[in-house]
Structures are given as C-alpha cells and as structure tokens.
Amino acid sequence: FTVETLARFIDQRFYELNNLKKIDQQLVRSVESCRLDLRRFGVKFTANSSRPYFLGHEREDVVKNQQEFVKYFIEREQHFYTITNDAVPQWRIPTIAPTILLCHDESTYKCGEITAKRWIMPDNAPFYNKGGGRSIMCSDLLNSASAAIALGGDIYLNNQSILDQFKRLFQLLPFKKEYESHNFLCLVDNSRTHTAAETHLNDFGMRPGTRCPVDKIEYIDENNKKQTIECYDDDGYSKGLLTIAN
Asked: What gap in Å lies between CA 115 and CA 48, rounded to an integer?
C-alpha cells in the first residue's frame, strides 16, 4: 500500500464508524501525519529486494528479446482486439486479419510489475500482489473442451513435446466457432532467459533418477568452444552426478 491509500482508508472508515457524512475533501488524518505514524510504529519504507529483475539492469540477451517482443506487437497492433485507455474503455475491433492471442497463464501480463519500494513492519514481510502496474486484461474462458499439457522430461515450453501439442492445437482451433476466421498466436512465459541463477553441486543427486535442478549444463571449453552436457536421458530421468561428471 501507499501512504495516500492508508490516509484515504482511515478517512473512509472514520466516517463509516461514526455514521457521519463527509462534506469536504479534507482528510481526517493527513498523508504527512500517516507517514509519521508509520515511522513511529517502526515501519520502514524499503526497497523490494525480491523483485524478479530491475528495469535497465537485465542481461543483453534479455533486453534484446524484450525489444523484439514489443516491436512484434507494435507492428501488428491493427491485427489484435484492443481497448482504449479511457475512463470507460471501449473495444477496438481489428480492421484486417484479426488475430487472437492465447496465453497459458494470465500472470504473463503482470510479471515484473512491482513497486520499487513498500512499507515493511519489523520482522514481518506480508504477501503482496506482483501485478502492481497498469495492465488491463480481459479473460474470456472457453472451456467447452479440456486438456492438459504433458511436459515430459524437459520442463521448458519450447521442447518438442510441447511444440507438437501446440501444432495440434492450431489444427483444432479453426473448428471452434468462437475462433472462426481468426489467426492464432500463443504466448508463453516459461523461458530459458528468465534467470541466470548459480547451481550448487549439492543440488545434484549421485545416482540416476535422483534430483537434478537443470536439464543441461553449458560451458566454454579450453578451445573457447561452447559445450553442452545433457542431464536427462530420453525417458525423462536424470542421469545422476556420477554419469554427468564422466
């Protein structure tokens, strides 16, 4: 929350609890006073250290992917159903070859939308909604048929098993009445470019079929060539640290 939100909440509850009618715009407890109250209570306005990333400090490949992503949709804006940025949003209907955007998870729209700072009580970090930005989303759930994605051994949404299922999805969608005469675009956010986290040796199990935090290990050899070690076999079982090390 913000101090302004707190001040307005106190003002609203004051009039509700005392059964009074508000006759002016003045707050019963000013924003400045609420800010001082919070600090007296020991609350700190501190940075969100657990943000997924900070804008302007991403890796070069991530920035490049973001620019390509934004450019793709800007150049094709006339193909999608959009809404106006008015007090009462209105639909904008595509004028040419309409395209429907399909997402596997509605949080795709809100990843990374977090305020830079928030109020934290001592030894107390409450849950918070990561979607703190200006996203406007309309979800239309069509569940006349149900299905599940079979991830297989590779959990990323670009493995061959997933791609085959997307191919089948695109073949079936034209027969659905709501999607008739439309093009389709699937948007998934389970990407290999999300993190660059370090992996500790103790995270790997020694024997086949045990724990393994990554699907492959990539490194640069003594000849300055990129090498890849697959950590899972074709059946989706981890090879184990002994096999990987050899």
From this structure: 7
Q: Are 184 and 217 in contact (CB under 8 A)?
A: no
Contacts of 209 (CB under 8 A, 6+ apart): 237, 238, 240
Are residues 109 and 136 part of one domain? Answer: yes
Residue 206: give the domain boundaries: 201-245
Residue 212 and residue 111 share a domain: no
115 shares a domain with 8: no
Give pTM, 2 decimals: 0.44
The tens digit of pLDDT for each residue in 156-192 reads 666 677 778 778 887 887 777 777 788 888 877 655 5
Nearest to 15 by CA among 28, 3, 5, 2: 28
Distance of CA 185 to the CA centre of its chain: 18
Structure tokens at 228: 């890849």
